[in-house]
Design goal:
With 113 residues, this protein is α+β, with helices and mostly antiparallel strands. It contains one helix and six strands. The strands form three sheets. It has a two-stranded antiparallel ribbon. A two-stranded antiparallel sheet has the order 3-6.
Length: 113
């Protein structure tokens, strides 16, 4: 079978035969938007299949989160907010550079003494 992503609708479609007793695993790697922090993300697929063997997919079921009891549970998780990395402004950078330069000069003086 072949998996085809459609970014505009946030969907992936896989189409292909599965032999009796066989299975298919489709792995989807997705990037969650930076603005999704604190939100609940939920994903669930729909399986269309030919239940009566006539060559036409007339039946559907929902995918199931195997980590939960029951059937047809979506996979759900809560997105955490990205931690902001603190940075220095121009004055802070200048002060840090001056401190580093001063420390280097003190160290050089001690070596030469």
């Amino acid at each position: 079978g072949t998996a085809v992503p459609t970014v505009a609708t946030n969907t992936v479609t896989w189409n292909g035969p599965i032999p009796a007793g066989g299975s298919v695993t489709v792995t989807i790697t997705a990037r969650i938007a930076d603005t999704a922090g604190g939100q609940t993300i939920s994903n669930q697929g729909t399986v269309n299949f030919d239940a009566d063997g006539n060559g036409t997919n007339e039946s559907t079921i929902q995918t199931d989160n195997p980590g939960l009891p029951g059937a047809s549970d979506p996979t759900t998780f809560r997105a955490v907010s990205a931690a902001e990395i603190p940075t220095l402004g121009e004055l802070g950078l200048a002060l840090m550079a001056a401190l580093l330069a001063g420390g280097a000069l003190l160290r050089l003086r001690r070596r030469t003494a």
